Structures are given as C-alpha cells and as structure tokens.
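Risk mitigation, structural track. In case the binding assays with NDP fail to produce interpretable data, a predicted complex structure has been prepared as a fallback.
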Amino acid sequence: MAKRIQFARTGGSEVLEFVDVTPADPASGEVRVRNEAVGLNFIDIYFRTGLYPVPGLPSGLGTEGAGVVDAVGEGVSHLKEGDRVAYAQGPLGAYGEFHVLPADKVVVLPNAITSETAAASMLKGLTVQYLLRQACPLEGGETILWHAAAGGVGSIACQWARALGVKLIGTVSSPEKAELAKANGAWATIDYTREDVVERVRELTNGEMCDVVYDSVGKDTWVTSLDCLKSRSLMVSFGNASGPVEGVNLGILNQKGSLFVTRPSLNGYADSRERLEMMCRDLFDMLGSGKVTVDIGQRFALADAGKAQDALAGRKTTGSTILLP
Ligand code: NDP
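Fallback model:
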C-alpha cells in the first residue's frame, strides 16, 4: 500500500483525506513515478474548491512532482526504471507517494537539479518561461508589473526578468516580502497594503507606465492592472488568487488605451512533447547557470497538505512550497 491525498467533495482544506491506496500499474504509454518531492500550487486549491471542475470524485490532487521512475508501461522508449524525472502536467494525483501519468509529460532531470528543486520549480518555472519568453517575448529594457512578486511563480519571475534585463516592478503585501522580491532581482516593489499601485507605477516610470502587466491575482487587481499599462500594451491575466475576473465589458480595453489582453495557461503553451522539451531546456539552462535559484520557503509532510494549502491561500508563504511523501 502507499499513501496519497484525495478528496471526495469540493470545499475547504478539511475535504482532503490522507489515505492508503494500492499504486496502479502504468498502462501503455504511461510511467509510474515514486515521488521524492511534490510541488504545491495555487491551481491545486482551484481544483479542491471546485473553481476548476474536477474530472470525477473521489480524485487525487496535484500535477507537479519529481522522483524516480518506478515502472514503465508498454511503448515508452524515452524513460526507464531508475531515471530521475520531473513533471508539471497530466492527471491530478501528484500528492502521493506514487503517481501514474502519461510518459510524454515526464522529463529526465539533469544531474545537478535535485528532486526538491524540480518539484519546486517545474510548474512555476515553465510558467515563467512561457510568460516572459513566449506570451510576450521580452528582449530587455521593458518595464513590467508583476503581482505577488514574493510568491512561488513571482520569485522565479523576478530572477528571470533580471537576467533578461527587464525592469520588474513587483507588488507585495509586506515589507518582508518586498525585501525578498528585491533580493531576487525586482527593480522596484510596491506594498499594495500601504501604497497606491497606479500612482507608484506612474512615479517609478516617470509617467510612462508598463509594457506588460502580469496579473495572477485576478478579480481584485484587474482594473488596477489595466491602469498601469501604456497605450496599446499587453495585459497577461494568468491566475485567480482573489477570484476569477468575470463579466468584463471589452469596451474597457478601448477606454484604457486600446489594450491587448491574454488569459494563458501552461497547458496551452506546453501542448506537445517538442514544446515541453524546448521549455524545459530553457528552464534547466536558467537553473544550471545559477541565473535562477529556487527558493523553497516551506516544506510540509504530505499528510499536512491541507495545512500547506491554507498557508498558501492565506498569503503566509514565500517562494515555493513542497510536500514530502
Ligand atoms: P503564490 O506563492 O504566488 O501565492 C499567491 C500570492 O498571491 C500570495 O502569497 C499573495 O501575495 C498574493 N495574493 C493576492 N491576493 C490574494 C488573495 N486574495 N488570496 C491569496 N493570495 C493572494 O502562488 P503560486 O506561485 O502557486 O501561483 C501564483 C499565481 O499564478 C496563482 O494565481 C496561480 O493560479 C497562477 N498560476 C498560473 C499558471 C498559468 O499557467 N496560468 C501556472 C502557475 C500558476 P501577497 O501577500 O504579496 O499579496
């Protein structure tokens, strides 16, 4: 038997159960990974609460982890038992000692990247890869606004932006988080609990405003984010930490300066094996070169996944959080 987290109904963190299961054998095209570390992500909370529909209940949870290939299904040629691997996509169920998933979602890790680092950076780092390098390919010299700059995705974004020569203005909710974002390479920070974000962006940019805004907070920050943009520039809305953006009248994009808006996801960018490998190469190069280091702010036992999710939803975490089976 093996341990995993599952939930039979959507709701608060109390719906998460720590149960014994018999690990499934991989079907054709699948592998089974013995997780050494599991990544905690905000999207896990969206599934648990029902904001994102769950394919069927009871269900496992989590899509990010790293460990060792433990069994290989028929027809899988690029992986073998014993390979050190990581993944950030595929069916829910990463919160467990074992996870069975399609082999084409699984990549072999370079020796220098530990399972803990991989579990803390695959989903978040690949997200930053597509946001900075694909959704709007930045060349250096741009000024961008990034909400939740001291969080998991934000901490990687600060470092990657610095490496690209992009001026990242990060929003945060405390002086400690501001310090962390600065240490990670944010060009400037705004504590939105004390400062007016639009006015501070105006001051910091000498009235020019931002080339791109990256907004994962959603409902609470939508209008503020649009107000921080230059005319004809891009709003990237990529998350719902405060709730989803709903009921938008597209006319607002006209009123705020002929703006563009995109609502991207990792699965929309890493939608083929070739694209996943290309994005992983870029991420692993950034990690290998030391331009991006992964800050694991919190480690929780797998059994405490509910506590970990409450800490993440309660803005009590910084950097990445991992669960240890
Ligand atoms: P974080 O570690 O960034 O945690 C979320 C942070 O958001 C909090 O620490 C808090 O920072 C800020 N926040 C602002 N308002 C709220 C609120 N009402 N409730 C909770 N937090 C709030 O999480 P992740 O790194 O896991 O994810 C960051 C975001 O990126 C999430 O919204 C997630 O859904 C999104 N995402 C999107 C992906 C995509 O492809 N579309 C992929 C991966 C992540 P502070 O205290 O400084 O305000």
